[in-house]
Design brief:
The structure is a homodimer. Chain A has a 6-stranded mixed sheet with strand order 1-2-6-3-7-18, with helices on both faces. Chain A has a 4-stranded antiparallel sheet with strand order 12-14-10-15. Chain A has a 3-stranded antiparallel sheet with strand order 4-5-20. Chain A has 12 helices and 20 strands. Chain A has about 450 residues and is an alpha/beta fold. The longest helix of chain A is centred in the last third of the chain and has 23 residues, at about 440-460. In chain A, strand 1 and strand 2 form a beta hairpin. Chain A has 2 domains: about 5-200 and about 370-460, Aminopeptidase; about 200-255 and about 300-370, Alpha-Beta Plaits. The first copy, chain A, has helices spanning about 5-20, 35-50, 120-140, 165-170, 230-235, 260-265, 275-280, 295, 340-355, 380-390, 405-415, 440-460, and strands at about 55-60, 65-70, 80-85, 105, 115-120, 150-155, 180, 185, 195-200, 200-210, 215, 300-310, 320, 325-335, 360-365, 370, 395-400, 415-420, 425, 435-440. Chains A and B meet through strand 10, strand 11, helix 5, helix 8 and strand 12 of A and strand 10, strand 11, helix 6, helix 9 and strand 12 of B. Strand 12 (about 300-310) of chain A pairs antiparallel with strand 12 (about 300-310) of chain B.
């Protein structure tokens, strides 16, 4: 039967399996969920075995385990390594969810008239990862396998994949492949397929500003002693000038300017600014002068304060001049900025900003390199052809705003390119409350993926 | 017997009674402690009756009750109204206390070689308030009463005394007095008595900045959508210029410049900048250009961010572009700034600072007017004479940095001046962890207060 028939016949089961996976609160950032991480790994192991892999191993790491499985049809065939992650973002703030983050429910929305599954991880990344398991099940059942397939499903993507690099280095032979396939990105729309041809990098730091050695009474000391919150605000404010450019010394040195032609091509992608603002409830967008909204969110580097706290933040008023103020700051990077270099530049710049009246500590978190996938390569071409078959139009190549730090690692350690076949939508609210994934999108992914393998094999042997 | 003999003979009891009061966690800001508020009021009622008042009433209000007591010796005598508060600041952050905030313990320190009582409220205001109850007990026992005494002890000073004004307006006749006496301020040192001749006012607001209508993924949207934390930082940073002056339009219009002569007199107070910095663990002080450290903390208005929060502030990294950012901001005011006017000016200025990409809401909290006590008035003179008797030197008149908002109310509603006889030290860490009050200071207050009544009566009848 065709893959569409397969989906139609088994659609309830296909949805119920995904929902069972979504019920497991596999939050990697919080050690309280350690047991659930194992449960999710075990679930995947069982499903992969049922789908027909030769073997599955739950590989322990210093953190959460990596689920590794393979189906080798023929050593002479090309090998595709499917990467996904079974861990999810923390669900907070929970009070903003309309249904439980780990109680998946299908509801219809404007952009998902056929319904969407609402749960933390529905889109990022369980729904998109599980499409691959079901596509594999189909190909095995209908004997439509064209490539060897290896699955590498980790549990720490949301916390920076600290153990993935070491795992890949220790298992280079086992993981040998011709291409890595990932579904953890989005498309422009259900009528406007697009593929991510580039990812931004990430630099993430935590800063701590200390003034006096204890909290002080703001009457007794206010005006005479530097307030670390006021100072931190000044330091953060100075990081961006009036043109929206980041002032960290050397920040833009390695940025590859995008050609006028490519910018023109990107500008052809459908984008409705009024709708964009209306959906976000904002009166105005804001960013680097000289670039459009879509460009600011994809081809330009950025700086965002992800969290800030200090002083008294409870109920009512407290007149304290606090000892400390903190912030979590991250920067999205573009080719050819280097995450390590940018982090070092930021640290140096920020520490130098501090007046003598305070002390500053900058602590780096995990980062990731920016990535570019050549649109003329067979990896991209095979995928584009698959989308064209199931959507009726070629996907527009777009550079994404987000980061998947391990993609740069793949090329470095395994020597293969990555192709990103995403089926989510930007409005699926990943990392936010009420995250969801369209039923249409889930099934479209299962339908599209088998064509990728077919075309990749054909193009490789051509 | 003399008051010193009284103190010596009963010193253990005098300390134990205060410690019993300190054990009651009478935190007014937190409704969880409502029962303890009543316990503290009941405790005071009993002690006042035992000391010899004619009557005590625990007067209900819309919030915590006011303890009102009186001892009328002779209607023709002057009447002193003693004000104090039995509520205390919240104890957090609790982890920074070396002993329990409500488990009073006496420990010696460099500045308190005779020991200090460590507990929340030891200095602000239970220790200083209770000195008055014990001084009264002494004067009654030894028949050394010179004035009628009325006690008005409230339970909401730390939350802005919202019900005190109404209480005073409803009880104007009952509260009729010639002077109000308060002990809720500090002296320069145990060898350097000083008296507060002025208080700063207070304006307190909470601000909320909203960007997008939900938390966003900072990769998908970062760089294209205004981040309310970044915006809030810019807005706060702009509130003070490089000279340390506040930029709110109209802010300084009503400030009475302090004369060169008065500044010279203030500069005579002993102040060791190196010691000040060393005790606070800072390498540099910081404030308005053209003013000394002590001036910045007393005769100049200020702006401090007391709390700030927004985005992800938990463990690890989360790449969120948050929907909202918040801050609690307060300003200390000097004569003749008006709290209501400054709050209105701030609100107008801050709202106008907001770019079109965010929405700002400014919510005022309680405030208070600045105050000046004439040093040539008999209130001040009687108190200064009392200090001279027990310390061996006249107290230096100093303007305090902190606010006691209801002092301005007293003059307005009761038509009498307030004299502030403080016995705490700036290093007693009020509003901070490990708050304490010297045993020397507690006993010195009890010793000094009876002389005030004697001199006030004499000066009034002269």
């Amino acid at each position: 039967m065709s893959v569409k028939q397969f989906i139609e016949k088994d659609k309830d089961r296909l949805l119920e399996e995904l929902m069972a996976l979504l019920r497991i609160p596999s939050v990697s950032a919080d050690s309280a969920y350690k047991k659930d991480m194992l449960s999710a790994a075990e679930f995947l192991k069982i499903k992969l075995l049922e789908a027909g892999v030769d073997s599955v191993e739950i590989c322990p790491t210093a953190g959460h385990p990596i689920v590794y499985a393979e189906k080798i049809m023929d050593p002479s065939w090309p090998t595709v390594l499917v990467y996904g992650h079974y861990d999810v973002q923390p669900p907070d703030p929970i009070e903003l969810w309309e249904s439980g983050p780990f109680e998946p429910i299908i509801k219809t929305t404007d952009r998902h008239p056929e319904g969407a599954i609402f749960a933390r991880g529905a889109c990022d990344d369980k729904g998109q990862m599980y499409m691959h398991v079901k596509a594999f099940e189909y190909m095995m059942r209908e004997q439509k396998m064209y490539c060897n397939i290896k699955f590498m499903l980790e549990g720490e993507e949301e916390v920076g994949s600290p153990n993935l690099g070491p795992f890949m280095r220790e298992n280079q032979e086992r993981l040998a492949c011709d291409v890595i396939l990932i579904s953890d990105t989005s498309m422009l729309g259900n009528e406007s397929p697009s593929m991510t041809s580039g990812l931004r990098g990430l630099s993430y730091v935590e800063v701590e500003v200390t003034g006096p050695n204890r909290d002080l009474h703001s009457g007794t000391y206010g005006g005479a002693v530097a307030n670390p919150i006021n100072i931190l605000a000044k330091m953060i404010a100075s990081l961006q000038d009036e043109e929206g450019r980041i002032t960290v010394e050397g920040f833009y040195d390695d940025v590859l300017e995008v050609s006028a032609e490519e910018r023109e091509a990107m500008a052809k992608a459908p984008f409705d600014l009024a709708d964009y603002k209306a959906k976000l409830g904002i009166d105005d967008v804001s960013g680097e002068a000289g670039f459009s909204t879509m460009e600011r969110a994809s081809i330009r580097p950025t700086l965002d304060v992800n969290g800030i706290w200090g002083g008294y933040i409870g109920e009512g008023a407290k007149t304290v001049l606090p000892s400390k103020a903190y912030a979590k700051i991250s920067m999205r990077l573009v080719p050819n900025q280097s995450s390590e270099q940018i982090t070092a530049l930021f640290k140096k710049h920020f520490e130098a900003l501090a007046p003598a009246s305070v002390k500053v500590v900058v602590t780096p978190h995990h980062g990731g390199e920016p990535v570019l996938t050549p649109t003329d390569g067979i990896e991209f071409q095979a995928a584009a052809k698959a989308y064209e078959q199931t959507f009726g139009k070629r996907p527009i190549p777009l550079r994404a705003g987000g980061s998947i730090p391990i993609v740069a690692l793949f090329e470095e350690i395994l020597g293969a390119k990555t192709v990103m076949m995403g089926f989510g939508l930007d409005t699926d609210a990943i990392h936010s409350p009420n995250e969801h994934f369209g039923v249409f999108n889930y099934f479209k992914g299962i339908e599209t993926l088998p064509y990728f393998y077919e075309h990749f094999r054909a193009m490789k042997e051509a």
